[in-house]
TrEMBL record:
Name of the molecule in the record: Nucleoside-diphosphate-sugar epimerase
Matching InterPro entries: Epimerase_deHydtase (IPR001509), NAD(P)-bd_dom_sf (IPR036291), NAD(P)-dependent_oxidoreduct (IPR051783)
SUPFAM superfamilies: NAD(P)-binding Rossmann-fold domains
Superkingdom of the organism of origin: Bacteria
NAD-dependent epimerase/dehydratase domain: residues covered: 3-211
GO cellular component: cytoplasm
Amino acid sequence: MRVFITGASGWIGSHTVDEFLAAGHEVLGLARSDASAATLEAKGAEVLRGDLDDLDSLREGAASTDGTVHLANKHDFANPAVSNAAERAAVQTIADTLEGSGRPFLVASGHAGIVEGRAVTEDDVNPHVGPDAMRGGSERLALDYADRGVRAIAARFAPTVHGAGDHGFVAALVAGARAAGQSGYVGDGSNEWSAVHVTDAARAVRLAVEGAPAGTRLHVVAEEGIATRDIATAIGEGLGLPVVPVDPAEATTRIGWIGFFFGMHLAATSDKTRALLGWHPNGPTLADDLPSYLSAPTA
């Protein structure tokens, strides 16, 4: 199979490229910079130059391959409307290109705002619909094409896809703690985050593209829920900083932009995903990986 991957040089994307190549597939990776292109070529992947706003490149990549994995996102948390609009346009463009082809189209998604007060399951329908919704309503938009000849798959990733070298949410929590001189958790810290190691996540993506049915909602989750208080405590102890509760109204000022997400309950099950894909996460846990975040040099 020849697979088109957006976000191919990103954190999850780079490991996904490795996973597909190791399994004997060919990869066409979207690259917006010379450095990203060189990295992909060194791995043995083909390169398509472009970015998330280059809709012609997205059409070309989707049309010229046997399946598409959409992992790119602007992640502009200061301007979410910009990120949401770009995400929706990209998903719409790829889905329209694949309509009637029967080819797989996996779209990255998340668990935020789907349900309140409990772990999200694969049966829970994403309520975010329309261009003004979270992520531009891209999950629901993509799955709408399951009835239009696209093997559309929604992959909901844990909020922390962790591993050595990650610069995502956990790295932001560590940076925030260093800057504040304390490690904070929101409220009483009983809300939970799910987690998955990046190599397990990449394997789940490959298995999904190889065989998940149209309309499938998958949870790329290894650890269902870790109390955010426990995450903050591990960070504080590792950095030698006090661990303190933070009023939800002050989360972003006391913890940083990541405080908004750290106050969410983002637990999720993955029993159905494991059974469907034969996926058995076996990578390091978040607790195993935390020392690598704490020892990483500051920016």
